[in-house]
Specification:
384 residues; alpha/beta; eight-stranded mixed sheet; 15 helices; globular
Length: 384
């Protein structure tokens, strides 16, 4: 919301989806509320157009619409509301669609990383994703503990609410957002709008993960979501500024655009892990993965891919088997980052290394073939 107020017209893509669950996260009635907001005010530009996608049942339909939106030249807002789910084979985040069940996630839900893959070519600072989401306990905890992330090449705002036997969330964030946009005398900034909506929605702070920006003091979550949480206890270090919670300090520095500072803190912890646990250790691999997240935040997917590949190799040599979730995640994240790389030389270099790893960590069906196909297509494109 409100990326820029330049001369180019804006564009908004609004997606709501309800899975056929017994107690769904009721989002299908939200689009009329957002449609009542003038498109230019919704996006934050002098003029804009809006595309709505209500309760789609095919991920490829969503992908095609998303691809069209990503091609616009002006500021882009992508609004997504629905239930987050994870496929049990690859543990990748998906947005449940109208036909999604627990057994059909891989085939009927939208992989969240597809959103980042389509938006990564857009100019920095022109894209915002607003999300009003719910998740079951396992998925919500994975986000809170930074084992999963919704981050991508866009500004991200919104909420993820816990949905379990004790919590039956409603999309109050969107209700508040639409009301503020319709009634405020002037359009608030993106940051202000997000915080105002969180306060007006009165979400349960103990069961709500806030996305993007610095949360209001009285709504601060226990953890951030920009960098992965450690899988072991924090490594001792002499870095005074980061000693209490290095991941929070790193996340805050990255959000503020101090990428060098964030990377330096992570590197200092990696060195401490190296001295204490050795080069081939899960502790070292973790901090390499933190640097990979930072590289992706900084907009260098080739560097992120290289680091995730490195982390996977370290984990394998640290006697974590190829089926270990941390190994599989590192290779999958490397694979996703690789698809964001545009330089042909780097695509080939990283792809060859990725293909080698895919022989040990095959991933989901077709993952290795995907690498082979992209490398083959690259070779054909480079032929004189």
């Amino acid at each position: 919301m409100g990326i820029s107020t330049g001369e180019q017209p804006g564009y908004a893509l609004l997606i709501t989806a309800e899975a056929p669950a017994r107690h769904p996260f009721a989002v299908n009635g939200l689009l009329p509320q957002l449609a009542a907001v003038p498109p230019a005010r919704l996006v934050g530009t002098s003029s804009a157009s809006v595309m709505q996608l209500a309760n789609p049942d095919d991920p490829n339909t969503v992908l095609t619409t998303l691809r069209t939106a990503a091609a616009v030249e002006g500021p882009l807002l992508v609004y997504v509301a629905g239930q987050l789910v994870v496929d049990h084979r690859q543990h990748l985040l998906h947005l449940a669609l109208a036909r999604t069940t627990a057994r059909t996630v891989r085939y009927t839900a939208l992989p969240w990383h597809w959103i980042g893959a389509e938006l990564h070519r857009r100019p920095p600072g022109t894209t915002t994703v607003v999300a009003d989401l719910a998740a079951d306990t396992d998925v919500w905890q994975a986000l809170v503990h930074q084992e999963q992330t919704l981050a991508g090449p866009f500004a991200l705002y919104g909420t993820v609410q816990l949905q379990d036997r004790r919590h039956s969330p409603s999309p109050a964030y969107t209700h508040a957002l639409a009301h503020i946009l319709r009634t405020a005398p002037t359009r608030p900034s993106t940051e202000q709008l997000h915080h105002q909506a969180v306060r007006a929605a009165a979400v349960d702070p103990a069961a709500t993960l806030l996305l993007g920006g610095q949360p209001p003091v009285d709504q601060a979550p226990q953890t951030d979501v920009d960098v992965p949480a450690p899988r072991t206890e924090p490594v001792p270090t002499t870095t005074a500024a980061a000693e209490d919670n290095p991941h929070r300090v790193i996340s805050e520095a990255s959000r503020a655009g101090r990428h060098g500072e964030a990377a330096a803190i992570a590197a200092s912890y990696e060195q401490a892990a190296l001295r204490e646990h050795g080069a081939q250790s899960a502790e070292v691999a973790h901090w390499i993965e933190v640097r990979a997240f930072l590289a992706l935040q900084e907009g260098t997917p080739d560097r992120a891919c290289q680091l995730w590949l490195q982390a996977a190799v370290v984990r394998l040599t640290a006697d974590q088997h190829p089926e270990h979730p941390a190994v599989a995640e590192a290779v999958d994240r490397a694979h996703g980052a690789w698809h964001l790389v545009s330089d042909p030389a780097r695509i080939r270099e990283l792809g060859i290394e990725l293909l080698s790893l895919r022989t040990q960590v095959p991933g989901k069906s077709g993952a290795r073939a995907d690498v082979q196909t992209r490398l083959a297509n690259l070779s054909r494109a480079l032929r004189p």
